[in-house]
Amino acid sequence: MRTLFNRLIFIRMRRVFELLVVSLFLIIILTINSKWSSSIINDNNKHRHININNISVNSFLSQDQSLNQNHDTIIEKIITGQPNLAKYIHLDLKGAPPQPNKFYETFFNFIDQLNMSVKGIVIEYEDLLPLNGRFANATHRFGYKKSDIELIQTAAKSHRLEIIPLIQTFGHLEWLLKLREFELYRDELASPMVITPCLDLTYVLLEDLLQQTLDMHPNSNIIHIGCDEVTLTNSHPKCQEISMDVPERYINHVKRIVSIVQKIRPGIRILIWDDVIRSEQFINNEKLLNELKNLVEPVAWNYHPTFDDSYIYSPIWNIYSKLFSNTWAASAFKGGLSRLSMQTNTTHHVLNHQAWLQFMKLSTNQNNKSFSAIILTGWSRFDHFMPLCDLLPTAYQSLISSLYILTTGKSILHDYVNDCYELMNSIGKDSQLCQSLPGLSIWSGISSLSLSLSQIEDRLTFLHTVAPSYNRKHLFVRRYELDLRLNELEMLKNDLLTVTQLLNHHLSELYSLDVIDEWFDLYITPILGRINATLIEFSPVRNQTSWSRRPSISIKSKIIMQCILPQSQTTPEKCLSNPWHGKGFCEPNQYKSAIDRCEGGHKSCDLSIEIYKELVKVLEHCSESLHQWSLTSQRKIVQSKEFGTTRAAWIESIQAVEKLAERNEDITKNIQHHVIDKMVAYKNSKYERSFLHLKKVKEFEKDFKKVQKPWLELLNKINEAKQEFHHASRKLHHAKRAENVIKTDLGVTDEQKKKVKDSVHHYESETETCRSTYSKLMEDMKAKQPGYQEEMFKILSRTDDFERDRLNQFKLMFNALQEAISIENDARHTEMSDLFNKAIGKHNINSDIEYFNKHYGRETKTKWPVFEDVHESCHSL
């Protein structure tokens, strides 16, 4: 009994304890909730100062997607700025170069008045410089003139800005190497991206380029020689003569370029992009990288909103601090995000600068040398062949915000800023400075355009959601909503045309017509095309007032009509997209036109098989639909009120039409057996494969290469001799000019005159030697030319025979197709005609009229009303 009592006491005590624990837990939860609610209320009453580190911003979203929708929101980061860090703004002129007299003076004035430690401008001219000599026909047709280059430098000097020309000297020489006359200099024949370092003529060419560039920039004490994104393959035949790996050849090339630049302008500082020398093959070979010690100043570029650990803690930073007196940074204020971009993403680029500030602080703490300057790059294209992106005026907000965060450590981002005056007030600057910003109306114009395009995209997406192709095909769409949305789309199209017309005017104030045309073709023409196509596609369903029962029956004849194309009016060159058109067959690699023709024949065989298989499917669908149509139509006629010979003729005419299905089935069999099967058999026998290649075509290519190899070697020798002769001639010309000047200079000593005279004799001798070598090689070429041409034409004749055989097969295919669809002497056609004649013959109009009158009309007995008297039996009522 006592044990039982103790047990009950224990159970009650445990329950009381559990109740106390639960009560304590509830008190804690209520306390935390009260404090949290109070904090929220207080925060909502404050002006928002948010630490960037405590929020997650997707830098790949536009600003209005990434940030809070409160227009007054300011994101402010308390981080150490770099007010004394030298800042340089990079202008990329390979895309949308501004008109010099309308841009540089006002833009440089704005940068000067902004007072944010901008020391200079890095200008990447590419093909825009007014070069002469061998480059005269390589530059941009609407490039800058020498007076424009002088204008730029004068404007820069008046606003205390240094001009740093950026001239690519290794990779990204597409603007030059794309041209036929400079193919010789390519590292890889098929790609114009990288110049070969294995030709001595390369350095003659680059010296000329650098000489002319520096001559046009007499006051520049720094030059940038590019050398980024070099995908060197050592494919040039000359590279095989000296065995050297890619990193070593890269360093040797840079050293030679540095030597050329220092010879032209001793003491000049030389910048180089660092992405190649920052790679593992150089980090693991510091001895090789040591060869560049104090020759160049690397520019480390990174355009990401955050830096990964492999970049931050790379051993390259210690190597740089030991080898180079200065290391530069490079961020991006535009063009660092997307190849095709109409409007600059400010958020992304500001976060990139924030990442640089954090990295610079970390580098200093790790006892690495601090960065001596930063270049804010503003890319207009990813490379020479890429589309235009981010016109400069759309990046003004990004540029100003980026300079601000670099200087103060604070970023001020409004959700949707398209007003310079508001932005300048936000950073505590005089808003009147905006008046000196060229193309300011382009900034606001493209912002408005972006909003219009967003609305149009929404409508197009909605339309294709509520009325997809299946519904439009069967005219089965909810019309009211469709009309409403299409009317909205037409209104938006009109608004878009108005905005673009105004924007076109603004663009013409800063850019040339070729830039404006390209920009509109990239960003406006496609969306207008989509709008017009949508309005056309949706027009049939707008007039629909009644709809069929479900399921909808497909109209197969529509498929047939879609297969009927207008006759092509293009030239053979356009049809083949022939890159060899306009060149002589015996020129280097032109034999590939014959190889391409043979390979194209194989593809044409495949295409013919594919096309006629599709035709067979169409005809089969058509036959099936005709049978179904005939059955349904006869049933409807039987159920109708039609009668007599008309009903009989109608039904029999339907049955006659149905014979088309049987005719189609015959055509289908004939096309399958006499066209498709025969073409398949021909292709398999003619185009025998050897692993990945067509055996016969590979033989042709091998024979062409064998004949052309010694000819290419001779052409290379001729080109080298020509370049050496021209170079020697120019040196002789300069020497003679110097001699003429000295003759009239009374202050020149006899010894100096003798030296000049000796140099003239030396260059005369050198020129004559080069001329002789060049002439002999030309004579050698003329002697070998007939034999070389004859051998090339022999192989070409074999490819002609090969192609002629294929074309004969195509003629047989055309004849078989004609025979398959011909109606001459066709039994089915005769039967169908007979059935029609029989059906029409049965149709007797008078007979049907008489039948109707006999049973329902004039010959029937009509019961006319007669007078009926009252019957006597009715009186009793």
From TrEMBL:
The keyword Coiled coil applies. The keyword DNA repair does not apply. InterPro entries: AH/BAR_dom_sf, F_BAR_dom, GH, HEXDC-like. Residues 568-848 form the F-BAR domain. One of its GO terms (molecular function) is hexosaminidase activity. Keywords: Coiled coil. PANTHER family: BCDNA.GH04120 (PTHR21040:SF8). This is F-BAR domain-containing protein. It comes from Rotaria sordida.
